[in-house]
Recover the amino acids of this structure.
């Protein structure tokens, strides 16, 4: 694919890994229309480029991964009829663009409100030990619905989701609590965050991409299906994505196991 210059994000591909870096540190990586539009383009590139096996999503700056929508630029969608308006954050996550390649999200600093659009649709989320998660909607008297619903779909306990949404920015969830409730799967020291995300991406990128994409798609689609339909859907993906001769070798790319 041809090189594209982005103004709000950085994008690079190397060794079958696409690295997407939110790059508005002066605005705490809050998203605006430009970032939303650029994320649409990036996810399409990740989806359609067979050389890309996995993506890493991270952010520049020291203070924040993302603090949601940039209120300083105002809502850019309200010129439309209310019946035609779309969720402004829907463009941010990979699943909305039918990206079935794994996405590893590396969170540092503040992850506030609309940051959950990125987190909720990532496959593996890790964070640094100083990361905090909170929702400022309540402080501004604004309904918080879309991000919490995404958290519920991810399997976060309803009590934790309600506490996150109702207490606003006055209570911030620590990295340890995020690990306990399932928002993240691993907490690392701040200086190790990017290296750890890259290590995970390298391991996944070395696997057979058809198997990885079939796995990702079957699992995400199962969230919206009854168990019996999900099982049949999953079976179809094993038939589509597994080698045609039916032979596999579990020793391929095998390494010494790690325990966490």
């Amino acid at each position: 694919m041809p090189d594209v210059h982005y103004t709000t994000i950085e994008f690079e591909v190397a060794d079958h890994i696409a690295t997407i870096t939110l790059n508005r540190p002066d605005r705490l990586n809050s998203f605006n229309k430009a970032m939303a539009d650029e994320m649409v383009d990036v996810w399409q590139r990740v989806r359609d480029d067979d050389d890309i096996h996995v993506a890493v999503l991270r952010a520049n700056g020291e203070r924040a991964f993302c603090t949601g929508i940039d209120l300083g630029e105002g809502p850019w969608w309200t010129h439309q009829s209310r019946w035609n308006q779309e969720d402004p954050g829907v463009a941010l996550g990979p699943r909305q663009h039918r990206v079935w390649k794994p996405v590893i999200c590396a969170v540092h600093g503040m992850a506030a409100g609309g940051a959950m659009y990125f987190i909720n649709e990532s496959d593996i989320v890790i964070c640094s030990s100083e990361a905090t998660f909170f929702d400022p909607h309540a402080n501004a008297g604004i309904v918080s619905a879309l991000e919490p619903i995404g958290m519920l779909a991810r399997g976060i306990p309803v009590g934790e989701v309600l506490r996150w949404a109702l207490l606003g920015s006055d209570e911030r969830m620590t990295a340890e609590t995020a690990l306990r409730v399932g928002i993240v799967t691993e907490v690392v020291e701040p200086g190790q965050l990017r290296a750890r995300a890259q290590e995970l991406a390298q391991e996944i990128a070395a696997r057979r991409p058809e198997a990885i994409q079939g796995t990702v798609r079957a699992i995400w689609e199962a969230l919206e299906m009854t168990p019996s339909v999900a099982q049949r859907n999953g079976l179809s993906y094993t038939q589509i994505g597994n080698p045609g001769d039916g032979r596999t070798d579990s020793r391929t790319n095998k390494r010494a196991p790690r325990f966490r």
Q: What stands out?
A: The chain has a mean pLDDT of 92. Helices lie at 33-48, 115-120, 146-153, 158-166, 175-181, 193-205, 209-222, 227-241.
